[in-house]
Hints:
By secondary structure, this protein is an all-beta fold. The protein has strands spanning 3-7, 10-12, 18-25, 28-39, 46-51, 57-59, 67-72, 77-82, 91-101, 107-110, 114-118. The N and C termini lie far apart (40 Å).
Amino acid sequence: QVQLVESGGGLVQPGGSLRLSCAASGSIFFINTMGWYRQAPGKQRELVATITSGGGTNYADSVKGRFTISRDNAKNTVYLQMNSLKPEDTAVYYCNGYIVPRGSSISNYWGQGTQVTVSS
Length: 120
C-alpha cells in the first residue's frame, strides 16, 4: 500500500523559513506529478505548488518567489522550501501525488498533513 508521510512543519516567526518533506513509501512503480496543498481554518484547500516527474514546476501566485518545490526521485521524496513566511501562510500543508503502484493503475494519494504556523 502506498503512503505519503509529511514532516517538517512547526511554529516559525514571520520572515522565517521552514522546509517540508514528503516521502512516498510502499510498492511503487512510478511517481508522476507531486504537489503541496494547504488548508487554513475556515477556508478551502488550495494548491501551493506542483512538480512533474521531469522537474517542471507550478506555483500559486501567493507563494511565487518565496517557496520552492523540488523532488528527489531516487528517494521518492518531494520538498517544499518556504522562505519569507507570512502569517497568512498558516495552514495545514498536505502532500499529494499521482502514483502508479506496482501491478496497478495510477491513483491519487494524500498525506496526513503537517501544521505550519507563522506567528510572533
